[in-house]
Amino acid sequence: MNALADLPAGFASPGPASQLVFRCVLDALSRPGRVHRLPREAAVSFMPPPPMSVALAALLLTLLDGEVSIWLGPAFDSALLRHWLAFHTGVQLAREPEGARFVALRADELDAALWPRLARGSDEAPHDGASVLVDVPALGSGCALRIAGPGIAAPAAFAAEGIGRALWQLRADEHPRYPLGVDLLLCSGDQVAGLPRSTRIVVEG
User: Which residue ranges form the domains of the chain, and what is each CATH number?
Assistant: First the structure.
């Protein structure tokens, strides 16, 4: 992977597309658990590198720059994706998840072994907690959760296929540490849902 011509294209119109996707991210994080669809103008303006979903790739093009770092899970850690991200965003590629500002991975890679390695921020800088972008097979099915907190008018149901009960329980157990924690953005196809660290989770069943 040496020729720029071999790299998949980014947004056809980076400025307008990034603004649309950023608004979608803000909506997802301010209304936790609701499924949002990427604006069509952004979703159809590029082809994501395989095997990444359109939504996750669009979020990376929008959120990453040369001032932050990202760790890629094994499913995404390919020469193609590394070069694509470096060329289109200038992001720093982290060798390990510890300390990475962003993490991108597949649902089956987000497990109890990885979870404690993710950055939570510090008392002085809680905003340094990681943003974790996860490709899931589907939103709306999977382990049943009950969520509550800022942006949720009444306790609501949520599910994302591919993330196991044990992981969700770890996430639920650490909520008392807020504002330290991890922000989750869950992607499937052209859809995205957010579970910021402020959201309380109860694993049902």
Answer: 4-137+183-193 (3.40.50.11310)
